[in-house]
Amino acid sequence: MPVRYLGLAAVLAASVSVVTCASAQEAERKGIAAPPGHVFKTIISGYEFRSKETRALQDDDLENPGFLAVERAADAWKKAEGSAGKSCMSCHGEAETSMKGVGAAMPKWDDKLKKPVNLEQRINICRTENMKAEPWKFKSQELTDMTTFVRYQSHGMKVSVKTDGPMSPWFERGKQIYYTRYGQLDLACESCHERNNGKFMRADFLSQGQTNGFPTYRLRDQRLVPLHERFEGCMFDVRAEPFKPLSDEFIALELYVAWRGIGLPVETPSVRN
């Protein structure tokens, strides 16, 4: 039977036969020591699961195609839009200073909304409330570019999301979603990225599923992909009905998965397969 007709569960089972090969590469993967209570002893970025050619592409700022978004958004940062006649720069000044560390700490609690918001939502809150401009649509080039640009200001800084206080029930909700089996294939996020990371599946290695590189330039799609689109893709892959991007469910999942990569450096814009 052709591989494309095999269910994901069957492919996972088949991957056992190549564990030896995967283990050899795993031995070369670098990570950081996980804090107490973490599910892994070593937290490893998705970068380490890619080929040396893909890693080299990410590491070269001139060759990394994700930097086209950074450059476009750097111009958009200074452009006034909306009836208030303001730009991002009108309120925040130079992004290199004011946005440093912002992307490393998202999702973050919003006192006004009484819920956590992620970077895409924060950008659109600024547009509607301060600039009096229309919000950008999820997956639009404008929103993905600006999300990439703001997160890039935290490049190299450690992921540092807060999960205590009012964030605690959202963290627990995200954890519940992570371990819940969905779809016709009856698989959870945990099935691939916890129990089977490092194994070879469909010409690629399953990573630990960290978020420190998002938005990430996917070679398969030839464009930057925001995190919630990747969540959608995973749920489609297990033949489930995905939650909506920017929904409370995906915000909770984003918080939990970000915590699983706590301490990893922000790599945005990363390059993945």
Measure the end-to-end span.
Answer: 25 Å
Structural class: mainly alpha
In the sheet with the most strands, the strands line up as 8-7-9
Low-pLDDT parts are 1-6, 14-21
The radius of gyration over CA amounts to 19 Å
Q: Could you give the count of β-strands? A: 9
What letter string, H or E per element, gives the SSE order?
HHEEHHHHEEHHHHEEEEHHE
Mean pLDDT: 92
State the helix count.
12
Rough outline: globular
The main β sheet shows up as:
3 strands, mixed
- How much of the polypeptide forms β-strand, as a percent range? 5-15%
Percent in helix = 25-40%
Active site: 234 (cysteine persulfide intermediate)
Signal peptide: 1-24
GO cellular component, one term: cytochrome complex
Organism: Bradyrhizobium quebecense
List the helices and strands and how they pair.
Blueprint: H1 8-14, H2 19-26, E1 32-33, E2 42-43, H3 52-59, H4 67-77, H5 88-92, H6 95-98, E3 108-110, E4 115-117, H7 119-131, H8 141-152, H9 168-179, H10 189-193, E5 200-201, E6 204-205, E7 216-218, E8 223-225, H11 227-237, H12 248-260, E9 270-272
Parallel strand pairs: 7-9
Antiparallel strand pairs: 1-2, 3-4, 5-6, 7-8
Helix pairs in contact: 4-8, 7-8, 9-12
